[in-house]
Amino acid sequence: MRVDSQHLLYKYLASVILPLAGIDLKDPHIETSSLSDKRAVYLFKELKSRNQFVGKYFGFRYQLSEQERRNVLNKEFLNLCAIRAKGFSDYPNRVVRPYTKNEEMNYLLVEDYVRGHDLDYYISKAAYSGQHERLLRKLTGLAYFLFMLHQKTISDHSVCIKNSSGYFRSIIKGLKGQGIIDEKVSLEFEHLFNVWERSDKMQQDLSVWVHGDVTPTNFFFHPEDGITAIDLERMQLADRVYDIGFLCAELKHHFALRLLNANLAERFISHFLHAYCDNFSDPYSEFKRIAERNPFYMALGEMRIARNTYLSRNHRRWLVEEAYRCLTY
Q1: Which helix (H) or strand (E) holds 323?
Q2: Which of 10, 119, 157, 313 has a C-alpha 20 to 30 A away from that of 51?
Q3: Alpha-carbon distances, residue 318 vs 206, 224, 260 (angstroms)
Q4: Residue 129, by phi and psi: left (phi above 0), alpha (psi -120 to 50) or beta?
Q5: H helices within 231-265, ranges in order?
Q6: What percent of the chain has pLDDT over 70?
Q7: Are residues 59 and 133 in the same domain?
Q8: CATH number, domain at 215?
Q9: What pLDDT shows up at residue 320?
Q10: Are residues 197 and 286 in the same domain?
């Protein structure tokens, strides 16, 4: 859809965003189209220069208060700036460039448009076209990206699992409200949480800044094997295995959903874990430590996915059962 030159969005893009991107044009031609059927995310395209940008409107998140929308907008903008300043502004590993944020325009964040295929594309190709080696290569690259992100943001504070457990319990409450689990199952999970919380192995690492939303659509791969990450609004200090476990959960989920065979994901999960640990000076010892903690965070990821109402109830219940198996591992 063409953006009228008298529209506030047109004036903002023409007078603020294009100059920031180094584009000097008289009377730019701007079109916009939706990029998501779940969130207010739009593509802004300048037709003369063929430059493209992404706009995220946090103001349409009606479940949030005005202050919460402001906080989420500012958090993502500052997270992107902070991580880019850590060395993630150029290939091969980068996070998307944010241009500006504008609270007056329905809490708008404007970013670069990221070209390339996301991880979901390569998972699909592996599942349906047998392109296993291609997915393995992409997982190796993603493992290195996450390793560098974690290593460059190590804190002086030990991991506090209670933060993740609190998130876990909020998910359980939501699943119970949706009728996916009942009170008995909820109490069983509560017992398992308590066991994991008391385990010394869960507190022995230093916390790092994790991406916090390691879903396959948040990582884009480029022809030169570079990776660009998007959506850092959930970035937080946590156990590095938070990101690792979420990715493992996503792999298990996608192979179960697409091929009805979750076991096919095991090869890719193992490869990803080893690729991550191979970056340490003592890969074997690190793999052992991470593998001990991974079931907890993998279960967290599976329960998180199970909240999605667009999935079948049978698959959502399977995810809950798989999470339970992880916690009793």
Answers
A1: helix 313-327
A2: 119
A3: 33, 38, 11
A4: alpha
A5: 241-259
A6: 100
A7: no
A8: 3.90.1200.10
A9: 97
A10: yes
Owning domain of residue 160: 117-327
- Assess contact for 230 and 265: CB atoms under 8 A: no
Judge whether 176 lies within some domain.
yes
Tell me how far apart the alpha carbons of residues 70 and 67 are, in angstroms, rounded to a whole number.
Answer: 5
Q: Mark whether 135 and 56 lie in a shared domain.
A: no
Pairing of strands 108-112, 227-229: unpaired
CA distance 314 to 24: 54
Alpha helices in 130-160 (DSSP H): 132-151
- Cα Rg of the chain, angstroms: 21
What confidence score (pLDDT) does residue 186 get? 94
Q: What's the number of domains the chain is made of? A: 2
- Is residue 251 situated within a structural domain? yes
CA distances from 293 to 143, 204, 298, 329 (A): 17, 10, 9, 10
d(CA 188, CA 110): 44
The structure tokens 């409200």 sit at 177
Mean pLDDT by runs of 10 across the 329 residues of the chain is 88 94 92 90 94 95 92 96 96 94 96 96 96 97 97 94 85 95 94 91 93 97 88 96 98 95 96 98 97 96 96 97 94
- What are the angstrom distances between the C-alpha of 7 and each of 12, 22, 100? 9, 22, 18
> Within this chain, do residues 106 and 123 fall inside the same structural domain, yes or no?
no
In-domain check, residue 1: no
What pTM was estimated for this model as a whole? 0.95
